Amino acid sequence: MPLWLQARCGLERKSVVALGVVLAVAAVLAGQHFWAGGTQPVAAPEVVRPVPLSAREVPDAADPVASAGPSEPGAGPPAIVVDVSGKVRSPGIQRLPAGSRVADALRAAGGVRPGVDIEGLNRARLLADGEQVVVGAPVPMAGAADTGGGPAAGTGGAAPGAAPAAPVTLNTATAEQLDTLPGVGPVLAQHIIDYRAQHGGFRSVDELREVNGIGDRRFADLRNLVRP
Fold this sequence. Notes:
Elements: H1 3-9, H2 13-36, H3 53-57, H4 64-67, E1 79-86, E2 92-97, H5 102-108, E3 132-135, E4 168-169, H6 175-178, H7 186-199, H8 216-222, E5 226-227
Parallel strand pairs: 1-3, 4-5
Antiparallel strand pairs: 1-2
């Protein structure tokens, strides 16, 4: 600056330099503000679609874990229903898991009463749904009540070939009880017991045809005298 201007304004060189710097900075800020104040493209906001209630709160039916609710009381493997009667502590209908055996039915019925002979009862036999397990009740023999002196002498307690007064249960009958059926002797009775042990019991009377030694004619004589 000319000396006359400095003398007139009373400014020193340092003050003039500082004033120049301030003016330069102010000019730069003004230019930047002007440049930033221009129009800029603005993008439209993204449309957010609401999520359906079914997708947010309903579990996927294909997911076995999500769709499985709390287990119902008693839920488990398929059950069978058997009737345990005779000389047990709690006779009646028993519901057991599939694959149970006679021993399981006796245990569910409270066990066998003391002193009852169950030697002829196959406790390892598999049970079938709807089956009846009779404990300690011998099958009535024909003519036993008419003798007056008790059952007739012999292994089976009745005359050979005499038909029993009640159907013989194939799944629980002993060899002596099977021997009372017409046309069934000790050998054929043992064949019936062997078949019963190998196949887990009789599901129907028709399975008696598959026993070795029983033909169509003998089956026709026995079908009304026995039950599974």
